[in-house]
Design goal:
The protein is α/β, with parallel strands linked by helices. The chain has ten helices and ten strands. The C terminus is likely disordered. The structure holds adenosine-5'-triphosphate and magnesium ion.
Length: 269
């Protein structure tokens, strides 16, 4: 396929990725193609294999089979440090910062800028943290302890940390699950600025309104397998749901059965 604005070269690809835990085939055929400058949704029912795919990307799980490539070059991650060095950062739903360390110390943990006599250069660390937050359009005191930060603010610290590593791929596994409406909007503004800066963002969510508001393309997974990848503009919520569940929703929820418990199911909201 010719490259160009319509078909930019993929930044990160996964193909034929398998991962089993004993008898559980968490991933049977994981595939992904992420482009620089896109926010890409990954959707699927509970247990579809989304988080397992993320953990392969993050170097947490070595795949049993399959290939991963960055800029067209095959890569193998022996652990999370390899993935991070390759520019892949994962923001989890509930980050775990060190509560007694400051925001800046959490960001530069283990690689603080040093002055003479190997003393930590706190002024430089503070300034770099301020620069990172400025790039994200976020206000936060670099010197405050992480303890007491909201989950939303902890995620922003993690995103700042990812920027400090020059991450080009940001993976967000259900980042909005514990956020308020205002916090979701702020996160979206940050994600859009990362996209403007050329990052690829993989966004996992069970909320279709978020997927359709934020993402350029949508990959659907079912039972550990890739089902489809399409531009969001060419999809309807109904199509996405049918692909997630693998059959017509009317078959799942027959018309005569409209008890409140059924109709409040996540799949049809
Ligand atoms: N470490 C593990 N050991 C055993 N089974 C696992 C492990 N991790 C995941 N699984 C299983 O693999 C399957 C896929 O799980 P995964 O967490 O990837 O799904 P998911 O799409 O992220 O679901 P959710 O939307 O609920 O987060 C599930 O059946 C899960 O129970
Ligand atoms: Mg998951």
């Amino acid at each position: 396929m010719p490259e160009g604005p319509e078909h930019p070269a993929p930044l990160l690809t996964l193909a034929g990725v398998r991962k089993s835990f004993g008898a559980v085939h968490a991933l049977a055929d994981g595939r992904l193609d992420l482009r620089a400058g896109e926010v890409h949704a990954l959707v699927g029912e509970n247990g579809a294999g989304k988080s397992t795919l993320v953990k392969v990307l993050a170097g947490v799980h070595g795949p049993d089979e399959g290939v991963m490539a960055l800029d067209g070059q095959p890569v193998f991650f022996g652990g999370p440090a390899d993935a991070r060095a390759a520019g892949i950062a994962v923001i989890y739903q509930e980050p775990t910062l060190f509560p007694d360390l400051s925001v800046a110390e959490n960001i530069f943990m283990g690689r603080q800028p040093l002055r003479s006599l190997r003393r930590i250069d706190t002024a430089a660390m503070r300034q770099r943290t301020e620069e990172l937050f400025a790039r994200l359009g976020v206000r936060m005191d670099p010197d405050r302890p992480a303890r007491g930060l909201s989950i939303a603010d902890q995620q922003l610290v993690e995103i700042a940390k990812a920027l400090s590593f020059d991450a080009r791929v940001l993976v967000m596994d259900e980042p909005t699950a514990a956020l308020s409406g205002v916090e979701v909007e702020r996160l979206f503004a940050v994600v859009r600025s990362l996209r403007e800066a050329g990052a690829a963002v993989l966004f996992i969510s069970h909320r279709f309104d978020e997927v359709f508001a934020l993402c350029e393309r949508v990959t659907v997974m079912r039972d550990g397998r890739w089902v489809s990848t399409d531009p969001t503009a060419e999809l309807t919520v109904g199509q996405v749901v049918r692909r997630m569940v693998g059959r017509e929703v009317s078959q799942l929820y027959p018309k005569q059965d409209t008890t409140p418990a059924r109709s409040s199911c996540r799949c049809v909201t």
